[in-house]
Design a protein that fits this description.
The protein is an alpha/beta fold. Helices cover 45% and strands 18% of the residues. The chain has a 5-stranded mixed β-sheet with strand order 2-1-3-10-4, sandwiched between helices.
Length: 327
């Protein structure tokens, strides 16, 4: 189902629930996001909240805590598993060490394009990955766009794989991302997202890797002026629910939660595309050096050991093959 801009605007305008509105709901689901209010993932969950409230005749609402108010991603995952947080929007990266299936869409260069990624994650493979969360006290609901991740740093433009040598990059707290950066000849430093700006500013790290909107809204472009569009990752964002919270709902309410999450995907993707374009325009206007002319093949070739290390079981190898075969 496609949503028009008018519909999206009306949905998001009505999604800004007040404290009084929450008080009227019988059930208020607490939702966490590390990104600030207004960011596409946050607005996507707002849209889900409005759809869920309407579907349940006002019984169930969602209260969103943006800007890492409830903690950084690793901490909020544990809180969600224990039912302290009901809903959580998290990148797949932090799940890589917990749920093997999430490693596959997190592999460098696994997706050829955004359209390819959408077809995979909206299809059978994506559903298998969502189902895998159930064994870890979580319910996988939907995938949001997380954009193409590329390297940015404060030291020099990266025009070849050799330019990465010796640079220190922040990565998400995932062994795979550490190995990816190491395979490229750079040094990986896992750290929470909220510590990146000051760490680049003070020289603890030289840079990080992320998408246009995150590079923009985090202010990282202010302290890391060089951005190379190698697009090594297209890691989706995932929306999960605590199984403890899920089990408190009736079957009809659970179905309403799933449907509201599904509807929110179209909203988030439309807003993501707009945000991506706006962020790119702002960063280019700021005078940052953007490297677009780069030969990706040496980067891709360097990923052989990463695939060998993480794609070990026959099930994961089959999943990789099915993704690569998806047209």
């Amino acid at each position: 189902m496609k949503f028009t801009k008018t519909f999206i605007g009306a949905l998001l305008a009505s999604a800004a629930l007040t404290g009084a509105a929450w008080a009227e709901c019988e059930v208020t689901l607490k939702s966490s996001d590390t990104h600030p209010d207004g960011y596409p993932t946050v607005e996507g969950v707002k849209a889900m909240g409005e759809a869920l409230k309407e579907a349940t005749d006002g019984k169930i609402c969602i209260e969103i805590f943006a800007s890492a108010q409830l903690g950084e991603e690793k901490d909020t995952i544990e809180q969600t598993q224990f039912g302290v947080i009901d809903l959580n929007r998290v990148s797949l990266g932090p799940f890589n060490n917990i749920i093997p299936e999430t490693q596959v869409p997190s592999l460098p260069y696994i997706f050829r394009s955004v359209d390819h990624m959408h077809k995979v994650m909206d299809g059978e493979v994506g559903q298998e990955i969502l189902d895998a969360f159930a064994d870890h006290d979580l319910i996988g609901l939907a995938f949001y766009d997380g954009g193409s991740r590329s390297f940015y740093n404060s030291q020099r433009p990266i025009t070849s794989i050799e330019d990465l040598e010796g640079l220190k990059f922040r990565v998400m707290q995932s062994d795979m991302f550490v190995d990816m950066v190491s395979a490229l000849g750079a040094n990986a430093t896992p750290m929470p997202y909220g510590e990146v700006y000051s760490s680049i500013q003070t020289g603890v790290i030289d840079g990080a890797e992320n998408n246009w909107p995150s590079y923009d809204t985090s202010g990282h472009y202010e302290v890391a002026k060089y951005y190379t569009l190698d697009q090594h990752l297209m890691v989706p964002e995932v929306l999960v629910m605590s199984k403890m919270s899920w089990d408190k709902l009736s079957e009809e309410e659970q179905a309403a939660v799933r449907e509201a999450a599904k509807k929110s995907v179209e909203v988030q993707r439309a807003l993501w595309a707009e945000q991506e374009k706006a962020s790119e325009e702002r960063i280019r206007a700021a005078g940052n050096e953007i490297v677009t002319d780069i030969d990706k093949q040496p980067f891709i070739d360097a990923m052989g050991p990463v695939y060998e290390k993480y794609v070990t079981s026959e099930d994961l190898k089959d999943m990789v093959a099915r993704i690569q075969a998806t047209e």
